[in-house]
Write a structure and sequence with these properties.
Elements: H1 2-17, H2 19-39, H3 41-51, H4 55-59, H5 63-83, H6 85-93, H7 95-100, H8 106-128, H9 141-168, H10 172-188, H11 201-209, H12 211-223, H13 231-236, E1 242-243, E2 246-247, H14 250-275
Antiparallel strand pairs: 1-2
Length: about 280
């Protein structure tokens, strides 16, 4: 536990000392909020109002309220996976070699890296909460507190994915290229930025196997007051995620993320152990 905590603490300290990385990882979500939340909100709300037939149901749709949890989930995804890049950098600078010759188990190293990346990603997500008053959003304070543990859980699962890639990829350039190819489809096919209803069958399959889809859906259901929305708005916002015609409950989505996190952490630790044997 001391080894895990030391590696965990080191990654967090490195993140906050790296001002360029802190600013860069925070500026991208703000850019997405400005583009999708500000620039496209009018057209998206008009389109959704037309889909819902106008009237009170269409007036209830707030695109910024819809997209904000998705932007937070996107931040968790990008920060969690790209934080694993530090493993390759540590190999290049010799720090990883020093750790590997110590009596610390490789499982402890992998878990410490995973927790460090998840913590950094969660902090990044929480910083976005400071924008809620500026955006004119009115999320319930209790809901924001309730979503934090799930944010950390989702970040753990996604950091396990990044750790798995970092354990088998040797260069930083290769890691960045592979991750960028993976990250963008995971974002756009998760419902983070726009509803994922009525998609082609082959694309719908990708949506349903994408773990970020369930993370985004859970965050929206926790943060948005779903009970106050009409069925038309719920359907337009894509909050009725279903598989084989059966609507998925929030408990099942959280259970899926837990299983995904456990599997990814196990695969990452095994791969990390073999790659650095």
């Amino acid at each position: 536990m001391e080894a895990i905590f030391a590696i965990w603490q080191r990654d967090i300290t490195k993140f906050f000392r790296d001002k360029a990385r802190l600013f860069g990882s925070f500026s991208m979500p703000i850019l997405f909020l400005l583009i999708f939340g500000g620039g496209m909100s009018g057209s998206m709300e008009s389109m959704m109002a037309g889909t819902m037939g106008g009237g009170a149901a269409g007036a209830d749709f707030d695109y910024v309220e819809f997209v904000f949890p998705g932007i937070v989930a996107m931040t968790l995804l990008m920060t969690s996976i790209f934080s694993a890049l530090s493993i390759i950098e540590d190999k290049d600078f010799g720090y990883m070699k020093e750790i590997l010759v110590s009596p610390i188990s490789r499982v402890s190293i992998a878990v410490g890296k995973m927790l460090g990346a998840a913590t950094v990603a969660t902090v990044q997500g929480l910083l976005l909460f400071l924008l809620i008053p500026l955006l004119g959003l009115t999320y319930d304070f209790v809901s924001l507190i309730q979503v934090i543990p799930f944010m950390f859980l989702l970040a753990c699962a996604l950091s396990g994915l990044g750790l798995l890639f970092a354990s088998v990829i040797r260069s930083t350039q290769g890691f960045q290229m592979i991750v960028q190819i993976l990250v963008m489809p995971m974002i756009f096919l998760s419902g983070a930025l726009f509803p994922i209803n009525n998609m082609p069958t082959w694309m719908d399959v990708i949506v349903k196997i994408n773990p970020v889809t369930y993370g985004v859906d859970v965050m929206k259901k926790i943060m948005v007051d779903v009970d106050s929305l009409s069925p038309e708005v719920i359907d337009a916002m894509g909050l009725n995620l279903s598989i084989f015609g059966r609507q998925i409950t929030i408990f099942e989505e959280i259970l899926f993320i837990i299983i995904f996190a456990i599997v990814l952490v196990l695969l990452a630790t095994v791969s990390f152990k073999r790659a650095n044997a």
